Structure formats: structure tokens, C-alpha cells
Amino acid sequence: MVAGGAQGIGLAIVLRLRAAGAKVGVIDLAGPALSALPGDVTALAADITDTAALAAAGAEIAASLGGVDGLVNSAGIDLVAPLSDITDDAWERIIAVNLTGAMKLARAFEPSLRASGCAAIVNLSSGAGLVPLKHRSAYSASKAGLQMFSKSLAMELAEAGIRVNCVCPGAVETPLFRASISGGEDEAAQLQAVRARYALQRIAAPDEIAAAILWLLSDEASYVTGVALAVDGGRTFH
Amino acid sequence: MADALSRFDGKTAVITGGGGGIGAAIAARLHREGARVAVLDRDVSALPTGARWYLHEGDFLAEGAPEAFHAAVVRDFGPVDILINNLGQSGRERAAPFHRSQEEVWRFVMEISLFSAMRMSRLCAADLQARGGRIINMSSLAAFAGNPGLTDYAAAKMGLIGFTRSLAREMAPHGVTVNALAPGAIRTAAHAAMPPEIIADIIAKTPVGFVGEPEDVAAAAAFLASSEARYITGQTLLIDGGNWML
């Protein structure tokens, strides 16, 4: 089950899971991207901040797929703003989506994951949750909070055979990343500045993040829980 | 997953200290996935022999031993693609409270757990850079958690993490990734030698509630060595059942 699976990293993990033989469910906002998912994916429109919609979607997807063994949360929004420009609404929105949404999602799917007996949750955090980014105070706080939520949950759910980990990407070639740098005075210079922060000197493809998520979901990672794995081309050195 | 079982076809992998425990599990895993595997250890009798195995019995710390091993690997298998710096040891049988610790034991632990990684990496660096290879260093939960009487071992294992990060930056422009694994309690001979009450205590502190197997670490090593992990470098991955949660 992939939340935010209609585009970006979420879509990459959906395609990888299908290729690996999994039955896949997706929750995302209604729109053309959700409608365009392959026909064998159980796709439901739901807002990750909507408790009732998540509960309904959780039940429907568990029934449709015959159970849930893996939960990926890649739903997330960005906010680039100096402190004085952050409105209460904008702050509350980003925490509601990036942090509270992860809790609501996990809560909605906990019964299915417990029934599996051998399940894994992967939350998409960010390098910005490991090291701070200027003008990303709300985003960094939400992603750091997501990591500690995941670690605490890893302790709680271990006895049910459920592992909980985070993946922390840096810049990834996604609509979210493009939106964060477009509109600037010199997009090419901005891109170059971003690349220079990475030891590998390039931005990730969504599939490179999906590869790590798939590994953490798999039994190959059966003794790995409570980690925040940076998949960032050598930026944070966590 | 036929693809997964041939991920390392045509690749040469070197594992120091691969005669038993975690190193042997990594060797078996990479071999199973198609790699030519070369192992240097004092005792390699537990490993299988046959095609794509090169077992080199010897003491890494002996004068000229790493150089001779490396030359033999290159001669028989060609340049190295994957280097697993797994060799390491605590001076546990000579462990002492820090104020009575001996410099001789410190030097031994540093030589075998930290300098060995430096030496083997330096020998393989040129080939790895030419081939976009992989280095995986074996750190330990002990580097993070600390254990009384094992200050030398923790220092060496944390040293490996600094080594990993710095080397990752240096090798990245050549397409080489450098990462570290930090296993927690894993069922090995060293683990079995611990007093039962200490093992019980470790399990009590480990959220998943059991001791890991060498194969759990091997699975992570195979992932980091594969093209799946090409965007991961400079990282330290704990395989500890949730013990530390750094």
C-alpha cells in the first residue's frame, strides 16, 4: 500500500512493487495522475489528513488486496519560506500532511499489518530531516518529526513483527523538486548549486529511492528496524 | 528473481576475515549471486571450494600478507569490483578496564580493525576507481553504544565510520560508493562465547526480540554492493533489530 503513489517517488515504488510481483494499492489526491495508474493497481482518492477517508480506504484496500504486508508513505508537501512569511495555515498544513498524515495512515493500516505478522512500514523522510535547510524550517521540522515518530513506532510494533524505517532522499527529480527551484532568476545556476552539495554530483532519479524502499520492505531487511537510511548521493553522511 | 541471483556475474569480490561468521555469510551470498569471491583469513577451512572461490589462508597482519593476497586475486580473478573490509577483532580476551588497558592491545585492535581497511582499500583503490566499484566497511553497534572494557574496539569501529565518509567523498567522482554496516547482536562464534546473562540482556534491549543471523548482514552487504544502491554513499546502516535507532 503506497500513499502518495500517483507520482514522483511514490509512483516509482508502485512500479517496482508491481514488477516484483506484489499486489499494490494506492491512496493519493484525486486527479489525472491517480486515474492514470495501471489498471491492476487498486487506486483510491483520499486526503492523508482526512481521518475518516483513511479509515475507509484502509478497509477497502485491505479487502481488495486480501491483506497488507507493506505500507509506504510518500505523501508530502514542501514549504520554502523565511519565518516571517510562514502563516499559521501554511505551518499547520505541512505538519498535517507530512507528520500527522503519517500517523493517521499508520493507524488506519495497523490492524492489517498486525494481521500479516511479518510486515514493514517505510516512511519517506528527507535529508532535510537529518541536516537543516535554510528557509525550510517547517519542512525540516516535519521530516525530523517523522523520523522520530517512525523510530518510536518501530519499538512499539516490533512485537507484532512489524518493522518501521525511514528513507531520507536528498534532491530527487520529481514534480515537488522542480516546483521548488522553478521561478527563480537563474534556474540553471540553482540546479548546479544543488548538484554541488552531493558527493556523486547529481540529483537522484525517483527509481533510485524506490530501490532502497523496496529493499527495506523486503525480507532481506528482516533485522533492520528503526533506521533512517539516507539515499542522497553522499550529502548527509548519516 | 533470476535477475537477483546473477547480480554479481563477472564481478570480483574481496572479503577480508571471511573465514567464518558474518564474513563467510557475505562471501557465500556474493558467490551465490555470481561473483568470483576471494577470502583472506587465518582459517578458511569452513568455506566451500570450487569454481569462483579463491581462499587464501594467512594472517593479514603478517608482513606483506595483504599485498600477496591482492596480487593473487588480481592474477586469478582480475581487478577487484567489490571490497568488503570485514576483518576486525576486539581484544576481548585481553580486555581490561580502561585505566589498565595496554597500548599493545590497543595497537592490535587498531591494526586489525581499522588499519586493515585502510591497507586493503589502498591496494584496491585504483581498480575500484577504474570500474566504479564498491567498498563496504564493517563497523559495529559497539561504535555507537559503547561497551565497558572495549574502548579500543569502539574507537576503531567509529574510526571506520569517519574513514567511510571521507573516502566516500574522495571516491564519488569515480563512481565508487563507500558505505559501512554496523551489526548489532549477530549469532557468530564471538557471540556464542558471551555469558548467557549478557546475551539475555542484549535480547531484552533489542526491540525485535531476537539475535540476528550472519545472513541478515550479508543481505545488507549484497544490497549495498548491487547497482540498486548506486545513489547511497557515505552511510552507515545499522543491522541491529532496532537496538540503537540512530
From TrEMBL, chain B:
One of its GO terms (biological process) is fatty acid elongation. Residues 11-184 form the Ketoreductase domain. It comes from Falsigemmobacter faecalis. InterPro entries: KR_dom, NAD(P)-bd_dom_sf, Sc_DH/Rdtase_CS, SDR_fam. It comes from the Bacteria. This is SDR family oxidoreductase. Belongs to the short-chain dehydrogenases/reductases (SDR) family. Pfam families: adh_short_C2. GO terms for molecular function: oxidoreductase activity, acting on the CH-OH group of donors, NAD or NADP as acceptor. PANTHER family: 3-OXOACYL-[ACYL-CARRIER-PROTEIN] REDUCTASE, CHLOROPLASTIC, SHORT-CHAIN DEHYDROGENASES/REDUCTASES FAMILY MEMBER. PROSITE patterns: ADH_SHORT.
